[in-house]
Amino acid sequence: TVETKESIMKRFYTCEQKVNETVEAYASRLEELFDKAVELGGLKRFETGILKSVLHSGLRKELKNMSIYQCDKIEEYDEFKRELRKIEADLKDKPSEEKKPCKPALTTER
Predict the structure, then answer these.
(1) Is 53 helix (H, G, I), strand (E, B) or coil?
(2) Secondary structure of the chain: what % helix, strand, coil (to 5)?
(3) Taking the C-alpha atoms of 21, 22, 23 and 25 in order, what is their torsion angle to the nearest 10 degrees?
(4) Residue 13, Cβ density class (10 Å: 0-12 exposed, 13-18 middle, ≥19 buried)
(5) Which of 5, 37, 58, 70 could cross-link with 16 by S-S, CB 3.0 to 4.6 Å?
(6) HSE, side-chain direction, 13 A CA sphere, residue 108
(7) What's the predicted TM-score (pTM) here?
(8) Nearest 5°: CA angle at 70, between 97 and 94?
């Protein structure tokens, strides 16, 4: 199957992290699409800022919200990806808070 520049660009810009996918796996998929886009002339190799933006915009909601500051602060793509992996590891290490049903307040009249 021959892919056109337009189809690769569309897949690149709409790429999103899957539910149980790690940041590393998602970034690898995105980087492959970026490489194909570069080969077909849709992007330039030095346009890693676009790669970083697309990486951030396709993250799962919780990870995206937790990494807004890093995305704004960090210029380099690889460094931003490392920070995402740290955030992801912190999320996995955090004990899950089980939701316990609330007990209604009881008043006893005597």
Answers:
(1) helix
(2) 60, 0, 40
(3) -80
(4) middle
(5) 58
(6) 1
(7) 0.80
(8) 15
